[in-house]
Amino acid sequence: MGSIGWLWEQHQLLMHQCCSLPFAFLFYFLSKRRYLSLTYRYLFVSVGGCVLAVMTMGIYSLILFTSTFVFVLLVLSVDPGCVHVWAFGVQMLWQTFWHLFIQYKEYYLHEPVSIRLFLAASSLMLLTQRITSVSMDLQETQVLLTCNAITRRQSRVMILPLISYSLSFTTLLGGPLCSYSRFVLLMEGLGLSAPPSPLAVVLLKLVQVLLLEGVRWCLIYVLKHNAYDPMDSGVLCGVLWIWGLGLVFRIQYYSHWRISESLNNAAGFGFWEPSSGGSSEWSGLSDGDFWTTEASHRMSDFARRWNVTTALWLRRLVYTRCKHFPLFMSFGFSLWWHGLHLGHFVGFLTWAATVKADYHIHKHLGPEVSPAGRKIYSVLGWINTQMVVTCIAIAVEFRNMSGLRLLWGTYAGLFPLANITLLLILIKLQRHD
């Protein structure tokens, strides 16, 4: 019983997702056999999300229910062209209030914050993605919702898919972000021609999660038994130790993304069948692959591949709408969305600066590299990317000064500092030219 308790404590989010898998398979089976009409499919998904929220967050589940209720009211009462401004403003104010409340309890009252509140805040961030995604669709007329429904049936037909999309149990605790129109198509498609059984692919992805968590456990074991000591350890040992710690944090994200992807697949979502030949895949809903992302040898490539659906959401929400400094505005909004901790300020602004540096460095140095030196250039770029990403991950995950002191003490912080310094030099040279 002790080992089960330890497993639950260390992997609560993963375990909650795993416990939802049987219900996802049940939903897929009932939908495929046409035991559930479209209305009941929406009800199954939304009621399942409500039950999951109450079970995992307790009283704090009201945070999500309030947010969803207010959004539905806005959709019903505000003109589609203006609903995005209202939805974005209300949702971000609501989310910021709870993030600041957590900081108030942590830093001012010095009280431990309930894990249920952390789960609610994390789910609220994901709900913000879905709400603003729908509001942008309405603003851009990509989705049309008839707000002047006359009968009760017409009103239910409009509101139920919206609530199901917002509170779906498959995306309540983890991504990936799926557009509203695609969600509706997937729900309708389950009753017409359901995809093949996802059992094999879900089992394969669960094995991948176990392997990732096994690697993560081994890294934690090595780091604990070889703790970094600035007095005895050399610079290289410190850099390698900090790289291992950053990899531990990143693997945790890959595990959560893979289990969330598995949960969606188990419900019948994410099946992709190419129109022009090729093999069918269950990767239609994914936030990133470990090997593809970690193999990036440029910061700009890593930024695009890391948490793919969130990156696309930020691009649509901020980057394409900003006329001035879109890159820094995107990362600036990301730190606001993540919670406004000190580590978030340092981490995300460093990320923006190093991505900007990546564009300038490779623009100036890339053409100068000979074909023979291309592999060495790529390896050096990969090492630089790994260390910069490591510094960002540690700053963001520690959230306070302890992470920044650790980066400075191990000299790992010199990597992003060198990138930013080189960026300033190249910008100055460009102005002189």
UniProtKB/TrEMBL annotation:
**Main location, first listed in the record:** endoplasmic reticulum
One of its Pfam families is: MBOAT
Give the species this sequence originates from.
Stegastes partitus
Query: Which controlled-vocabulary keywords does the entry list?
Result: Acyltransferase, Endoplasmic reticulum, Membrane, Transferase, Transmembrane, Transmembrane helix
User: Where are the bilayer-spanning segments?
Assistant: 12-30, 42-63, 69-94, 162-183, 203-223, 235-253, 335-355, 376-396, 408-427
- Gene that this sequence comes from: mboat4
Membrane topology type:
Multi-pass membrane protein
Q: Which domain of life is it from?
A: Eukaryota
Cellular compartment(s): Endoplasmic reticulum membrane
**Name this polypeptide is given:** Ghrelin O-acyltransferase
